[in-house]
Prior knowledge:
One of its GO terms (biological process) is epoxide metabolic process. By secondary structure, the chain is an alpha/beta fold.
Amino acid sequence: MFSNNESLSLLISFLSLFIQTPPLPEINVNEWWGPRHLKSIQDTSIRPFVVEFNASMIADLRHRLRNTRQMTPPLEGTGSEYGFNTNEIPRWLRYWAEEYPYQDRVVEINKYPQYKTNIQGLDVHFVRVIPKVPIGIEVVPLLVLHGWPSSYLDFYALIPVLTSVSPHRDFVIEVIAASLPGFAFSDGAVRPGFGVDKMAVVLRNLMHRLGHKKFYTHGADWGSVVMSNMATFFPNEVLGYHSSMPTIFSPLQAFARIVGDYFPSLVVRPEVADRMYPLSNFLSKIVRESGYFHLQATKPDTVDIALTDSPAGLLAYFFEKISVGTREYYQHRADGGLELHYTKEQLVDNLMVYWASDSVATAGRIYADSFSPRYFSLRTDSIQSSVPAWILQAKYEISYIPPWMYKLKFPNLVNETVLDTGGHFLALELPVVLAEDIVRAVVEFRRLQHKGKREEL
């Protein structure tokens, strides 16, 4: 007899016979995204990079923070339901202008080696930490990618765990934490169409530039979508894919979600059913919380003018999304619940990376270039990838996807880790939990690879 999940999975498999799988899109690994006049003089060296908070930038920033206009008071009896509570903004602006230790924090930001190299016309920024190991210990590469409105700094607390030597395993991890193109100190494209599929090619080429023809990956938020594309395009190069926000968009999974609204047990285990159903709750949350998404997917440059010009606007915009992404119910708190999970320094460090690099606009364009007719026509989520995958799903992540459903995209799904806590910004909130899960995933990926090699002999 089949379980409910297996029965629906069989039905989905049957329906898939009548839905044509799209072909793998043509991939141009040399597509140029920078200024055309620089193509003939491209510098492909790997250059050390140091983040600077120079005196003139700090003076200008402080002036803007100290001269913010009087804000409209929030409505009586509200927390942050209408947006980040304006009664809370002044204390954050005072902290950023008067108390935030600029020079101490830039030292902290620079504690790991950072570099830039030009890939397809774009200077790509990344942190690279290569651990020193004793003889007999293998160093394996892991590319980790953040999302919006995060940055590569999210992974700083994971690095000591990932790069540590353990007597329980014969390898240690080299961490490459890249800034998504257009984010932080990585260049954005100078022409439209640079969606997550194009970013996947650029970042795969980065790994080749660093000497890694095969490597492991981890992604969160947009980073997870980029990594999914990378595993689709280059399945023989990605040794294993770990995601803390698994997502797929396909007609079959949409059909399954609707069926589950009437018969939840067909789709999801009872203990996690409340993460998906009732569907009306999920859709209500998406409508309520995705206004920024629609704006940035259609007219990102308009809002980015305000965010680039006003540090107060940038703070309110980012903090509101971080608050609700951490726990949806924090919308009812005036303070957004931010300091229950993160330090003031962490939150402002992230703002500083965007402000110092002037990357708010180029980062925001990922929505418009990835939620576009061009990208949707590729239907990459309907193309299976043979790459071994491992997913971690936090209690308060934006959405939950059942493992069998994820297997529609990644049939070699190795494991699902389900947390009874944690939100969208897991690398900042629970760094050790996330890092240890990534290590377990790599252990299992390597075991499967060694098993496959033995079977080939």
